[in-house]
Amino acid sequence: MTDISARYRQLSDAFTRQVEAVPPRRWDDPSPCADWTARQVLDHVIETQHRTAGYVSRDLPGPPDPTSADAPVGDPADAPGDAPADDPVAAWRAARDAMRRLLEDPATARLEFDGMLGRTSLERAVDDFVCFDLVVHAWDIARATGGDERMDLTEVRRLRAQAEGFGAAFRGPGGFGPEIAAPEGAGEQERLLAYLGRRP
């Protein structure tokens, strides 16, 4: 298992715990992401696993219905087409397990493609973007549904450095909102969330 595969396993385990803790009645609650429910945040995370695997021509179980490239990410149409509509936890587990298998196959993990920031590989894309989503959107789901909002401090620091490196490219529709002022005396997690356009 590579360091990236191990990181994905650790973060996807933490994300799974967050998802499994959501009371079924709360999936339709509004999230910190504008116009998204908690379920739509989860659908977006699942869709991201599918899209990333698709860059190297790999399919995950229950592929999402095709959508326009400019369709809002997180729209209900992005939900996995073959996953049970009433079982978001099962849909997430299926995507998670399939991505783990891809990352644990060295030949597949090293497959390359032309990404938005240049030439990259499946495992680097997972490390740079998918893992980023797992940390941030776990917080979004927790905030929406009354879950545990604590973030790992090592990941908070890593994500802040990554976000600053992305620059303006990661803000806007389908991405993160404009930075807001962090509360006075805010800790590193709160400052990261404010940088990502979220109110801690």
TrEMBL record:
Q: Name one GO molecular function term.
A: metal ion binding
Q: Which Gene3D superfamilies match?
A: dinb family like domain
Q: Where is the Mycothiol-dependent maleylpyruvate isomerase metal-binding domain?
A: 9-142
Say which domain of life the source belongs to. Answer: Bacteria
Region (Disordered) residue spans: 53-87
| UniProt feature, compositional bias: Low complexity | 69-87
Q: What is this protein called?
A: Mycothiol-dependent maleylpyruvate isomerase metal-binding domain-containing protein
- This protein's species is Streptomyces oceani
